[in-house]
Amino acid sequence: GGVGKTTLAKEFYNKKRSHYSKCCFLYDVRDNADKGSLNLLQKELLRSLCGWDKPIVSVDEGIGILKKHISTPNVLIILDDVDKADQVYELLPDLTLLHPDTLVLITSRYRDVLISSGVEESSIYMLTGLTTQHSHELFCLHSFNRPHPAPAFQSLVHKFVEACGGLPLSL
After folding, report:
1. 6-43, pLDDT tens digit by residue?
2. Is 142 exposed, middle or buried (0-12, 13-18, 19+ CB in 10 A)?
3. pTM for this one?
4. Which domain holds residue 108?
5. What is the number of H-type helices and E-type strands within the chain?
6. Are residues 98 and 139 in the same domain?
7. What is residue 126's DSSP assignment?
8. Left, alpha or beta for 165 (phi > 0: left; psi -120 to 50: alpha)?
9. Are residues 34 and 118 in the same domain?
10. φ, ψ dihedrals at 106, nearest 5°
11. What SUPFAM superfamilies does this protein's entry cite (predicted)?
């Protein structure tokens, strides 16, 4: 992690949400799944889709309810930090039922999770880290309020930038 998937997804969501009649950003799916809280995410998604306000006792119950409401038109759904295909299924149990003008964006560290979830290869975009030059500029702007360090710090900055491997969050 650390390349900026969630940050970009948030920015996309904030810029595009006004174009959709209903929107839902489900943060940190992986962590919620690990805590056994996927039914809470299901409820949040259903609240966004159709105003659902009843408890969802189990993930299986949530899957059944979602299948009935997933075809809602003009929806933007973001699933953040998915690490297993089952998580996509438990939140979007049948992708073929999605309305054609619904947009789903999924962030994941794992390409194979997306493919296993039924995402078309041509729809997958892999983020890469920053170039050394951009990493250097970002680090210096945050550390020195200018794009280049004083000569005395040049070597140290180079070591920091190298150690961060182009990950903006690390820089």
Report:
1. 999 999 999 999 999 999 999 999 999 999 999 999 99
2. exposed
3. 0.83
4. 5-123
5. 8, 3
6. no
7. -
8. left
9. yes
10. -120, 125
11. P-loop containing nucleoside triphosphate hydrolases
